[in-house]
UniProtKB/TrEMBL annotation:
Annotated InterPro entries: TatA/B/E (IPR003369), TatB (IPR018448)
Keyword Transferase: no
Localization: Cell membrane; Membrane
Protein name: Sec-independent protein translocase protein TatB
Biological source species: Variovorax dokdonensis
Gene of this entry: tatB
Amino acid sequence: MLDLGISKLALIGVVALIVIGPEKLPRVARTVGTLLGKAQRYVNDVKAEVNRSMELDELRKMKDSFEDAAREAEQSVRDNARDVQQQLEGVGAEAAASDGAWNTPLETPVSYPEYKNPRKNWRLKRGATPQWYKSRSGVRTRAQSGAARVARFRPHRID
């Protein structure tokens, strides 16, 4: 970094005053100040972006370690389940050899049909409603456009 002390800044100011002149010096100083501010903001943005990318890399590493741990846990659970299943099959084979009456495999659970919302089939329900009930309750049985409905219920003019 530049080592600027008070004496060097004063020397730069005097040279700028002589070269630029007292009329243009405030405008040039303002311009230099804004450019330095923009440069500082740019450097801060770059630093923030670098920090974000470093944090993102750390998060990716943590995610990978968690995924590896989850895979290991899943594998150990599968191994344990396989061992238990083999032990149960061994016990079942021993019981079948000794007793002879119990030789059926373990039953699979009964799967129930998926729930369907009864409102999904509203057309069927509408069709199953008797016509006399529809007319009494005011259900429209024939579809009409808006213009046809207006024309139907418009009062007739008497000339």
